[in-house]
Design brief:
With 274 residues, this protein is an alpha+beta fold. The protein folds into 2 domains: 221 residues, Hsp33 domain; 45 residues, no CATH class. It is built from 10 helices and 12 strands.
Length: 274
């Protein structure tokens, strides 16, 4: 029987100096997307972003709030996901209703990935902007993490209307010296994972199925939740970071003027009424 959704678990290949993490979102993901009516390609991308944002936030060296924005000039113009140190998620997408399935470049067009990290000891949040490089969302984040952390990283992400899930692997410093073939071997094994396994199996069963011969220590799970309190100050801050063009309402009936009165059903949970 699979583990309950809405959990993230870290693990370590003790003989290889390779770390990993698994996430599966169920109720939290469905609550985030309830009433949004996203087309399937948009929902899949947003679910994958929810998974990778949770994985990265759970593995931060110093606890903090992490926000990712992907902007483009394609049919999917904006994806945003925010996760705090308690692994409370909220997110949104902006896209046309006629969007069809395709690669990430086909959906977003030319665009960029923006990371915003805010921790308790920072005077102001740290931001990083990089161009989108990769045919999939997983590839974009693999490239970003390999560059920013100077460590080989792999990701496997999946999402449907019920569940969002992900698997993260990263070689730690000295992994090659510990086992010259270890990173290559673990990647090959993980590449066999199927979408239904990511979405349906719990962490222990998935690890046992993918890495039956490896010595893996699995750490206690951490709960993940959907959290979107009504906070006008944070609404205004978020909307300023998104920009006026993205905030513009799709019709006069959905907003009176400016970003601060956008209809909740067409934008993020930040605008939902109390």
């Amino acid at each position: 029987m699979s583990a309950p959704p809405d959990r993230v678990r870290s693990f370590l290949f003790e003989q290889l100096d390779i770390r990993g993490a698994w996430v599966q979102l169920g109720a939290a993901w469905r609550e985030m997307t309830a009433g949004r009516n996203y087309p399937d390609p948009v929902l899949e991308l947003l679910g994958q972003l929810a998974g990778v944002t949770t994985l990265i936030t759970a593995n931060l060296k110093q606890a903090g709030r992490l926000t990712f924005q992907l902007r483009g000039d394609g049919d999917v113009s904006l994806l945003v996901m925010d996760c705090d140190e308690q692994l409370r998620l909220r997110g949104m997408a902006r896209a046309t209703q006629t969007v069809t399935a395709g690669s990430l470049p086909a959906l977003l067009g030319d665009g960029a990935l923006t990371l915003t990290l805010d921790t308790a000891d920072m005077r102001q949040p740290y931001q990083s902007h990089v161009p989108l490089q990769g045919e999939t969302l997983a590839a974009v984040f693999e490239h970003y993490l390999a560059q920013s952390e100077q460590a080989p990283t792999r990701l496997w992400l999946a999402a449907n209307r019920e569940t969002a899930a992900g698997l993260f692997l990263q070689a730690l410093p000295g992994a090659a010296a510990r086992d010259a073939d270890g990173w290559n071997r673990v990647q090959i094994l993980a590449d066999t994972v199927q979408t239904d396994e990511l979405l349906g199996l719990g962490a222990i069963k998935l690890i046992e199925r993918l890495f039956p011969e490896e010595d893996v220590r699995v750490y206690d799970p951490r709960p993940v939740s959907y959290h979107c309190p009504y906070d006008p100050a944070k609404i205004h801050s978020m909307l300023r970071s998104v920009g006026q063009v993205e905030c513009r309402p799709s019709s006069p009936s959905r907003a009176r003027s400016g970003c601060t009165t956008i209809s909740a059903t067409t934008s993020t949970c930040w605008m939902r009424p109390r």
